[in-house]
Amino acid sequence: MNEKKNVKTLKIPFLGDLAVSFGRTVLGIVLGLITGGILIAFSGVNPFLAYGSLLRGAFGSMQALSNVLVRASPLLLGGVGVALGIKAGVWNIGMEGYMYLGAIGASIVGVMDLGLPPVVHIFLCFICAAIFSAAWGLIPGYLRAYKGVNEVTSTIMMSYIAIYLTNWVVSNVPFVAEVGSFYPMSKKFVSSALLPILMKGTSLHPGPFIAIVLCLVFHFILNYTPFGYRTKMLGANPHAARYAGVDSRKQIMIIIMIGAVIGGFSGAVESMGLKRRLFMEFVTGVGYESVAVALLAGGNPLGVIAAALFFAALKAGGATMSIETGVISSMNSIIIALCMLFVIGVGVVDGRRMKKIVDNSKDDEDDQEKAEASVAKEGK
Q1: What is the model's pTM?
Q2: Can you give the C-alpha Rg of the chain in angstroms?
Q3: Which of 7, 197, 291, 364 is most buried, with most CB under 10 Å away?
Q4: What angle do CA 118, 96, 58 make, to 5 degrees?
Q5: How confident is the chain (380 residues) per 10-residue block, as mean pLDDT?
Q6: CATH number of the domain enclosing 194
Q7: Whether residue 233 is found in the same domain as residue 111
């Protein structure tokens, strides 16, 4: 008779899931960089020299590092908003629209000289950004939760509406728009509504650090709170979640609206910290890049930090790489796409491998039960 041995193991909360998520992401990035290096070599450029130029352009000085952090700010916020939806099984990819609505809310308050201390004025801008973006997210949230409308379609369509709404605001709304400007834009934000510059001679503002803190907060929420448990349960098995008493409709609406608020914060940070006013099409494509960041991170808020910094480093250092080595400027996008494909591919292969392990484990358990039943029968 086979005896099962009880082996005591040290278990560290969430570490296993975190290791798997980071492992897939790192492996996908490495494979993407190797393949990108091969393409660079085919173009007649030494890939080691090209990547060396990229690293210098991204981390070669404090100014370069600050540029990476500033570029990462909207990707961090947008990425964690999308990642939260991924954990719930919801594709909340309307970050672009939420960013525009958040920026509109912040600009309405930011252009007015209210005589408030900077801390209060900035806080008020964030509150308005949250209200505007939450109201925008309420529409696809309600349609998905109560009407069964696909959230991918509704959020993408609403993003286009948000873009054109912003263009109208900065062109025609009298108390917001800069009349007679060469390009549609709002009036300049008053000084009390601007985020401070942390390093002289750069554009570094507190936005990236606010975003990193939010990533850490949502990692804690997902792993250590009932709300996070319900969210992950809904994403893993919605039928089991409903059977366990989770109000899936309410949870979906909350998840989409939280993502919308985070996206609104991203737009507010960009307008208050970097642009210093609201421009027409001021974050074109950044919302969709946030979706790529969340996917590269595997829906893990901590992984979003690494993925957003990776994207920002590629974008910041890519210009230096192109100037110094002659590599085409679109190579950054090609490398990002390759990394995405490899991360997804590694996830698919790993998922099949885990399914095979589970099936084999079930077969072993069945064989063990049959053997024990046979021994018991012979004993009688």
Answers
A1: 0.83
A2: 24
A3: 291
A4: 75
A5: 46 52 75 90 89 89 90 93 92 92 94 91 95 95 91 92 93 86 88 91 91 93 91 88 88 94 94 90 87 87 90 88 85 84 67 49 55 58
A6: 1.10.3470
A7: yes
